[in-house]
Amino acid sequence: MEKILVVDDEIFIRENLERTLTLKGYDVAVAQNRHESIHMLTEGDIDLVLLDLNLGRDSGIDILREMKEVDPEILVIIITGYGTVESAVEALKMGAYDYIKKPFKADALHLIVRLALETRSLKRELKSFKRDGSVLPEVVGVSPAMTDVFRKIREVAKHETATVLITGESGTGKEVVSRAIHNLSPRKDKPFVDINCGSLPYNLLESELFGHEKGAFTDAKTRKIGLLEEAAGGTVFLDEIGEMDMNLQVKFLRVLEERKIRRLGSTRNIDIDVRIIAATNKDLMEAINKKEFREDLFYRLNVFPMALPPLRERTEDIAPLLDHFIKRYSGEFKKDIREVSKEALELFKAYSWPGNIREMKNIVERICIMYEKEIITPDMLPREIAGEKPRPGGHINMHIPADGVDFETMIENIEKQLLSEALVMTGANVLRTSKLLNIPRGTLRYKLEKYGLV
């Protein structure tokens, strides 16, 4: 039960608020001056404070300041009968959640209290995610949009059979979110199996998902267990579900409906116990209208939808994401890079991030490979972020330290970076990536596997 502290010097107001809030199921404490209110805040587990700005000899502004010193996270709603813009704005600047003017209706009071308590609950959830770095090492964000994503991850993770459909632009972190759901669920000790539906042709994808018996087709020399069977008790993540062949969609719909599979070349049905998480950067409703995706499959997948916002719509997350990737890659490459200059951060925030988080990760990795400085400055940034037009010729600006480099390792890092950026540009489509880089698909697949980019 949430506990609310009401601070007002008028007994009628105190009793009225106490009665109204108690009827709504809240635990209510009351105080009439600074001393009582600070004592209760210090001693009790208070979730929310309703604070009158005018308390006779005591100033509500001074009490607010003292409360924030005792508990910086405490949410305070200011009550004022005077309603001056100046006092309300001053209180909000000092960290008050909101204000309400006397006289106020019960409905308005209940609404603002509910919203404040929901905000506190989400902040607490976010803290719990941050504490559990082993479960969610890659989920980073402080924006309201990401706070909502965190809440949804925690809620759907509890329900281990619920099918999840994650949508969002390429690079927004769909696989990271799917792993977070798995790691927080009762299935966390079972396998997490992922497959990209856009990277394999129909017959290979069918064999990978369902498995096959020996002799099911020409190259089926032995029995193969499919991913849906292999993931028993765990989670199957189907990336780029929008690229799945229409014929295979029919078979996969039956899997979702019956929770049974049949290996290729077999006549026996096998029960499966897996959670399905699918993801796509496509507009599936548009694909349905174009007869490229089955409507019935969409509704089977869309039990719990999660839409991930693009990075350009949550600039509050750019600084913490940069800090996260700098710590990772400066440690991996044994560099001393520790922060971003104010000027460089402004350029990062002004950039549109077409490749989203994946693009940022690749850029920070490249900077950590190439430079020895402690602070990332504008001259270290790619031209598209620094606001310069790229020069023709494909020149790569490379810094060689005085003690030399490991040539083979550096060339591999550059090759990996080129592949990563090409995957971002093509939405991880293998055919388009091979055309963009002008290399055969077989060579591309080999290199993707070599660098763990599959």
Spell out the key features of this protein.
single chain; 454 residues; Rossmann fold; Helicase, Ruva Protein, domain 3; 19 helices; 18 strands; 47% helix
Structure, described:
The chain has 19 helices and 18 strands. It folds into three domains: 3-125, Rossmann fold (3-Layer(aba) Sandwich), CATH 3.40.50; 144-309, P-loop containing nucleotide triphosphate hydrolases (Rossmann fold), CATH 3.40.50.300; 312-450, Helicase, Ruva Protein, domain 3 (Orthogonal Bundle). The chain has helices spanning 11-23, 34-43, 60-70, 85-93, 106-131, 144-158, 174-183, 202-210, 227-230, 246-258, 284-289, 295-301, 318-332, 342-350, 356-370, 383-386, 407-426, 430-437, 441-450, and strands spanning 3-7, 27-31, 48-52, 54-55, 58-59, 75-80, 98-101, 164-167, 192-196, 211-212, 224-225, 235-239, 260-261, 270-271, 275-280, 304-307, 339-340, 375-376. The strands form six sheets. It has a five-stranded parallel beta sheet with strand order 2-1-3-6-7, with helices on both faces. Strands 9-12-15-8-16 form a five-stranded parallel beta sheet. It has 454 residues and is of the alpha/beta class. Mean pLDDT is 86; it is low at 130-134 and 389-395. 47% of the residues lie in helices and 14% in strands. The longest helix is centred in the first third of the chain and has 26 residues, at 106-131. The protein starts with a strand and ends with a helix. The radius of gyration is 28 Å and the shape is globular.
Instruction: Work out the strand percent.
Output: 5-15%
Report the mean per-residue pLDDT as an integer. Answer: 86
Q: Give me the secondary-structure category.
A: alpha/beta
**What is the CATH level 1 assignment of the largest domain?**
Alpha Beta
Compute the number of strand runs.
Answer: 18
Sequence of strands across the biggest β-sheet:
2-1-3-6-7
CATH architecture of the largest domain: 3-Layer(aba) Sandwich
Pfam family, one: HTH_8
GO biological process, one term: phosphorelay signal transduction system
Keywords: ATP-binding, Nucleotide-binding, Phosphoprotein, Transcription, Transcription regulation
GO molecular function: ATP binding; sequence-specific DNA binding
